[in-house]
Amino acid sequence: MFTGIVQCSARVSSFEHKANISRLTVMPPDTSYLQRLTTGASIAINGVCLTVVSFDSESVSFDLINETLQRSNLAQLTLGSFVNFERAAKWGDEIGGHLLSGHIQTQGVVEQVSECENQYDIEVSIAPEWHKYVLEKGYIAVDGISLTVGKLTERGFWLHIIPETLRLTTLGGKPVASGVNLEIDAQTQAVVDTVERMLMNTKNV
């Protein structure tokens, strides 16, 4: 599990593509982010839960299957790209964001960016079948970042980003038309699906 509190932006140092699998290697800005790491551990990269296959004192590598590349924006990474990096939560850790599985349901698209002094707003569009799970002032994870939904729009929603989030994550470098990984809040999805099912059953009585 993850909390959506990104620890740092890591740089892509290698991305090798082979038949049916790719190996991604990233370098965090400080070796402390790799302390007590083990093979088989889980790390969220842009919100995608990946399994550590190898590591050294400076970098960590993951194997990505085609399903992961098709569902997320990781396929768009190139050498030198930066990604959001979060180690898996441990028992007793503070949950500063909200609980995340690291399983991406869909991608959104950055539609607008509005920037002024100490304020940075992003409008993200989302596929219609997922829009119903996005609630104003509810939680959503965008590229692994736990965020509160601002105003809803017909095609998606606005996010209001504080300077500290811009400093620690890759959001500030997202241009218009770029894709972002979205993980819907599990509790919100469960409530919406349950209500829809109850209403459907009532109609059929």
TrEMBL record:
InterPro entries: ATP_synth_asu-like_sf (IPR023366), Lumazine-bd (IPR001783), Lumazine-bd_dom (IPR026017), Riboflavin_synthase-like_b-brl (IPR017938)
Highest taxon in the source lineage: Bacteria
Segments forming a coiled coil: none
GO process terms (BP): riboflavin biosynthetic process
Keyword Transferase: yes
Catalytically driven reaction(s): 2 6,7-dimethyl-8-(1-D-ribityl)lumazine + H(+) = 5-amino-6-(D-ribitylamino)uracil + riboflavin
Keywords from the named record: Repeat, Riboflavin biosynthesis, Transferase
Pathway(s) this gene product operates in, as recorded in its UniProt entry: Cofactor biosynthesis; riboflavin biosynthesis; riboflavin from 2-hydroxy-3-oxobutyl phosphate and 5-amino-6-(D-ribitylamino)uracil: step 2/2
Sequence ranges assigned to domain Lumazine-binding in this UniProt record: 1-98, 99-195
GO molecular function: riboflavin synthase activity
SUPFAM superfamilies: Riboflavin synthase domain-like
Lumazine-binding repeat residues: 1-98, 99-195
The keyword Signal belongs to this UniProt entry's keyword annotation: no
Record EC number: 2.5.1.9
Purpose: Catalyzes the dismutation of two molecules of 6,7-dimethyl-8-ribityllumazine, resulting in the formation of riboflavin and 5-amino-6-(D-ribitylamino)uracil.
Database matches in PANTHER family: RIBOFLAVIN SYNTHASE, RIBOFLAVIN SYNTHASE ALPHA CHAIN
Name listed for the protein in its UniProt record: Riboflavin synthase
Species of origin: Corallincola holothuriorum
